[in-house]
Design brief:
globular, mainly alpha, 177 residues, three-stranded antiparallel beta sheet
């Protein structure tokens, strides 16, 4: 009976092989987080300078319009003193997502969780460093205006893309090796 060198190695070093795979999933998750946060903050900086005076029409009902959001998703809870609650709940959820990303057991799940974490962190950066009544009370910069949907940003879109990847990873869609 012939044995492939790779199968002999896998049998001899199963823990090392699994640790390497886990580390690569972590790298994917937290690398995706960093990319999303960087792109989100760059696009928000662009929006602050390019959209300060007037919106930019793109196509059809799509416009780029600068909006500041003090509430949660889609502006819910704005102006009602909910910022502290939003921040505490957001930080707790980000901690949970980070733990799940650390433990991710496949690429799609790791990528989805990393993208979700990046989206949440991108908006939390706004809360921490944009003008507000104190630390973590800043407003989130939104600028993608579909005309028929609340104005949003790249971080918001990343949250939904990440959720989509998680649904695919949980729904039995087979991932290629």
């Amino acid at each position: 009976m012939l044995h492939c060198a790779c199968s002999v190695r896998a049998q001899a070093f199963p823990v090392a092989e699994s640790a390497t795979t886990a580390a690569s999933y972590r790298g994917l998750a937290f690398g995706a987080t960093a990319v999303v946060v960087a792109l989100d903050q760059l696009t928000k900086q662009w929006a602050l300078s390019a959209l300060a005076t007037d919106p930019i029409p793109v196509v059809g009902s799509l416009n780029l319009t600068l909006v500041f959001n003090s509430g949660v998703a889609f502006g819910l809870g704005s102006g009602g003193g909910w910022t502290g609650v939003i921040v505490v709940v957001g930080l707790a959820l980000m901690g949970g997502v980070a733990v799940l990303a650390w433990r991710a057991d496949n690429r799609r799940r790791a990528l989805g969780l990393g993208i979700i974490l990046g989206g949440a962190l991108g908006n939390m950066v706004d809360r921490a460093f944009r003008a507000g009544d104190g630390f973590l009370s800043g407003q989130v910069v939104d600028f993608v205006d579909l005309g028929w949907w609340p104005v949003f940003n790249l971080a918001d879109a990343a949250l939904w893309i990440g959720i989509g990847l998680l649904v695919l990873s949980a729904g039995g869609v087979v991932e290629r090796a």
